[in-house]
Amino acid sequence: MSLFRIFDIAGSALSAQSTRLNTVASNIANAEVASSSAEGVYRLRQPVFAALLRGERGAAQDPLPGVQVLGIVESQRPPRVEHLPGHPLADENGYVYFPAISTVEEMANMISAARSYQNNVEVASTVKQLMLRTLQLGQR
Amino acid sequence: MSKLIDAALGIHPKALALGARRLEVLAANMANADTPGYKARDIDFRSALREATAARLERTHDRHLAGRAAAAEELKYRVPNQPALDGNTVDAELEQTAFAEAAVRYQASLDFLAARIDGLRKALRGE
User: Fold this and answer.
1) Chain B residues within 8 angstroms (CB to CB) of chain A
2) What single DSSP character describes residue B80?
3) Is the entire prediction scored with pTM above 0.90?
């Protein structure tokens, strides 16, 4: 029954979106972590999604892709520099380095990820109901 | 005998299979709502069902031409209303409503099939 494949597809999307939620949580948690050098500062992490094509259906039939996380990239945005001579992590010139993370951007990203996650949960539960009803077909 | 049952069930088994396929396509669209470069696709249900039920020449020999047997579930790309900068053409709201519609159609096919099976059973019992 081809409905079974929808669980694979929706499941891969759930896993990808939860990876995205994880990176958002990590970004927000580390948004204010100070560092004494530009190299040691936390960098914004973001997952890269790609369509996951399965080979099992063959090249002739059009395969329906799930989602995979190709990897997590670190942003190359330069860190935010503040002049705080009294800070325990200040370098010899009195500068402290903070990650270039916008909490507002991350919150928007989180809402988008959560909505996509909900969509896919809805898909999986609808398909589950339909499958159960299909199994009951002809039982009376 | 099995041909008789096939005739009694009518178009509904094919509609059910096609409905399941369409649900699969729409689920893939929704799963890839955030994938860069993904293009949303759909099945034209009416023409696909017409092709699935149309009389087809059977291949009884290897050297016969294959015809367009696979065309029944041809996927078509959706025309995007507002494509994203990353090349993704999935409109999540549109896909959601299409999925809900496809789910209801699938349930309708199930109900029709159940009624036909019930009728067959009654006819066999002779009640």
Assistant:
1) 16-17, 20-21, 23-25, 27-28, 30-38, 70, 75, 92, 96, 99-100, 103, 106-107, 110, 113-114, 117-118, 121
2) P
3) no
